[in-house]
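Q: Could you write out the predicted structure for this multi-component system? I'm mainly interested in how the pieces pack against one another.
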Amino acid sequence: MAAPINAAAVAALADEPLDWRFKGLPASWWGRTPAQICPGAPGLVDDGAVGPVCVLRAEALTHNLATMAGWCRDRGVELAPHGKTHMAPQLLARQLDAGACAVTVATISQLRAYRAFGVRDFILANELVDAAALQWVAKELDSDADLTVVCWVDSVAGVRRMAAGLEAAEAGRPVDVCVEVGIAGGRTGCRDASAVDEVARAAADCPALRLIGVAGYEAAIGHDVTPDGLARVTAYLAELRSAVERLSDVFETDSVVVTAGGSTYFDAVADVLAAGWPAGTSVRTIIRSGCYLTHDQGLYARTSPLREALRPALEVWAQVISRPEPDLALLTMGRRDVSFDQDMPVPLSLPDSVVTKLNDQHAYLRLGPNDRTAVEVGSWLRFGVSHPCTTFDKWQMIPVLDDDDGVVDLIRTFF
Ligand SMILES: Cc1ncc(COP(=O)(O)O)c(C=O)c1O
């Protein structure tokens, strides 16, 4: 059996020389490789980083990996972390090392990026109806007996398109599918039990597909953790449970997959779907959290079931370039550099101040009375983020810092 990821391909990233393509990083590093730069744990600003620059915290990453792995073990669930969060094979390698069973991806392009690093097991948490994509998947599956790809189906039309695409590609083995249970007001997924059953049976009847389970995404309706919000999520997860029970004779495997769970409700997924299956039914419960790895200082700090335990690992640093009013600082950090889809970035060590607005390349920091004297033109300030996914995608290389802010690794992303 092949390894879950090609460690040599991941390690080879450390031998690629840096240059101007990686914004923020010191020009003194150009022409040198991560393998040459990191052993000395250089200081980012000392070496000439220019704002803004994005960083990861080594200690928090290690802590979050171990915390989540332990939680999954205790709760009897597997983890297929969503790889769209960071698109970084180096980080995925650590997640797989910590026990992750697969990577989740949202698109075929994301799957291809991880496949380029020899990743073996995928959940494509989406419908796959594109003929060219089906042809590519069929070819990959035929060329590697160890490769596993599970994708989702939510319509008979989709099942037929998949079947036609795979037949046209002369696929040598079937593609695994889960029937997706949707939620009113949500995204993809069958909207009621009869549609779930109809689609599942259509997939099972189709030799090009192998029906192996049931899938869903409870946070498609939001991240409401009030008792009402949690009750809605629990009721939705119960629909996945009943689909697994109803379809037990239809699945084409002895090891049925049930998968749900982003970073807000994975405890509810474990509560509803991890145990208590009828005797003789073997069920793998797989959660797909992506944001647990770096956690954050906004959305997931408010909603993660492990918000007391996980540590924020992702920051953006920027310089003050203007202090045009007593309570206003402008920084070299904008919408090109940091998340803004959930909340504004959070100034660290400036408890009285808030970012009120971002332009493409500027942040507006309103300074509270106690913070004004500390913030001068030229000061470097650190910011936490809300929603890691939409910060990661703005950086192609992210330094990892030790507790003394020395750079101990450089993480390459592929968005
Ligand atoms: C289908 C699906 N599964 C899992 C996740 C991961 O959730 P999170 O971003 O909260 O970690 C997402 C995120 O959008 C998703 O769309």
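A: Regarding packing and overall arrangement: The longest helix spans residues 227-246.
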